[in-house]
Give the backbone structure.
Amino acid sequence: MDRQVVYADLKVSRDSSPKNSSPSSLPQDVCQGPPWHQFALKLGCAGVILLVLSVIGLTVSVISLTQKSSIERCSVNVQQNRNETTESPSPLQCMEPWQSFQDKCLLLSTINKPWNISLVDCSTKKSSLLLIQDQKELRQIQMQIKDEGISFWIGLNFTLPEKKWKWINGSFLNPATLNILGATKENSCVYITKKDVYSEDCGVEHKWICHKGVNHYTCISGC
Ligand SMILES: *[C@@H]1O[C@H](CO)[C@@H](O)[C@H](O)[C@H]1NC(C)=O
Ligand SMILES: *[C@@H]1O[C@H](CO)[C@@H](O)[C@H](O)[C@H]1NC(C)=O
Ligand SMILES: *[C@@H]1O[C@H](CO)[C@@H](O)[C@H](O)[C@H]1NC(C)=O
Ligand SMILES: *[C@@H]1O[C@H](CO)[C@@H](O)[C@H](O)[C@H]1NC(C)=O
């Protein structure tokens, strides 16, 4: 008996290969069930897989959503903190030896150098040789100059191909901004005194003025 059963099983398993399955005698009732069962099984399996996948998908999206919102909350916090720190030192102070001037910090040099050296000096101090926006700002800066006999290079020189005055930020001078006394020629740079604005050979030595934004300064000290 046992032997027969084993034999039958073996035969079934051998016969159930795709080619032989249709006409054989024994597998008839075995095969009648399976197409149905298998279909149902496959359907069930697919359902389970779909369910698992959708649960995973949901979990992932929920996690990423909560992370995103917490990141957003973080950046909002940072923004608010930044507002507070920039607004707290209300009468803005520049660090010595820089002096406060409106929304900038100014540094008036005490030594004399050619224009190109002063240009480099300001950039090594993470600042810029002075740029002047208009007549009003020029007058206000001139009020910071104590002695009438001192002259300060600013960030304006004569550029050759164009034969025009050019600010070191790359913009050309609007002639209405400054009335420059002296020659307008090659190798000329601009300095200011308490009273006036002059053109002079860039190789001559003068003092100079560096400026930088206060925001830049507060970040250096506060961050
Ligand atoms: C932060 O600054 C922005 C503009 O820079 C302003 O609109 C906002 O109201 C400020 N927030 C706080 C809390 O001061
Ligand atoms: C400044 O210019 C002089 C002469 O034009 C030159 O010898 C010197 O190397 C320049 N210095 C810098 C820092 O550019
Ligand atoms: C360069 O500086 C001048 C003088 O302050 C200003 O008028 C001009 O708008 C500035 N240009 C740029 C590109 O910032
Ligand atoms: C004028 O300034 C520019 C930088 O803004 C510089 O490249 C150029 O050499 C300067 N010209 C002279 C004569 O120093």
